[in-house]
Amino acid sequence: MREGVRVPQAHVVTSTSVENVGNKDITKKIALSRIDVLYRVHPKYLRYNLWDNEERDIPISKIPPDLADWTKTTKPLPTVPHSEFGNIEAMRTIKDNPNLFKIVTPVDVDGFERLLVMHPNCAFMELVCRGLHEGFWPWAETQYEAYPCMVDESLGMPQSEKEGEFLQSQREHKHSKGRFSGPFGRDLLPGMHVSPIHAVPKPRLEKLRMVINQSAGSYSPNSMISKEHMKGFLLNDMRHLGASLLVCHRSKPSQRLVVFKSNVAEAYWLLPMHPLWQIKQVATIDGE
């Protein structure tokens, strides 16, 4: 009777790539700070809303410059390219219909300019004030020689009576504020561009909000804007608020702090656009 024979195991040689950890700062990942631990156990929306008074360097050391500091060194805003004034159709429409292309803002521009006399970045502030006087330009090349003279991307009638009534109310509201012109008929004028406009429900609410989709279609207004030039613009966020609160508390720990919110409603609607860009922002409601 034969005895069992032990079969030698075969060895398989494979190559497995692994990341070189020789230059990795492993200590930094292992030794998590208390604030990192807090970030991981809270929802993402609270990431910049956690302020730990015992962590002296956080979040103050990690926040970007605030908006006021940023204006000291940023580049000037764009002006309307000279070539845009060669758009004969658009220039004629604007000249013949001045009531449709007004520059409206509630900002006291003259008073604003007086407050900025000593601002260190004169070139930037001069163009901000010029934009408030003449209308802003969004880093666009309208390509009027390559794009159609008129573009109509309107969606037609609203899908429901509720949506129709809401859009009508928005039209009246924005017209009363000077943000919409009055109606001028059912036909576009040379040089005009219509973007789709509709209403969508607000999250977890029955209320609606108006959407003007300036990215829709092959010749959308947003397709004319250089994305590269728009990078890097800052807005103050909750990190700046948290840093300010910590500085105040540390300097006067025994004093009670009171925080209040000054709400600038519909802030972006306060910035008028240049007539040569307004003509690319036509809204059609109820066919007008």
Summary of the model, kept short:
By secondary structure, this protein is mainly alpha-helical. It is 28% helix and 5% strand.
Written overview of the protein:
- The protein has 288 residues and is mainly α.
- The protein has 2 domains: 32-62, no CATH class; 67-278, no CATH class.
- It has helices at residues 26-30, 34-41, 67-70, 88-96, 109-115, 122-134, 161-176, 238-251, 275-278; strands at residues 151-152, 193-194, 197-201, 208-212.
- The strands form 2 sheets. Strands 1-2 form a two-stranded parallel sheet. A two-stranded antiparallel ribbon has the order 3-4.
- The chain starts with 25 loop residues before the first helix and ends in a 10-residue tail after the last helix.
Characteristics:
288 residues; two-stranded parallel sheet; 5% strand; 28% helix; mainly alpha; single chain; 2 domains; two-stranded antiparallel sheet
Count the helices. How many? 9
* Classification by helices and strands: mainly alpha
How many β-strand runs? 4
Distance between the termini: 102 Å
What composes the largest sheet?
2 strands, parallel
Element order: H for helix, E for strand = HHHHHHEHEEEHH
Identify the overall geometry.
globular
Mean pLDDT over the full residue set: 82
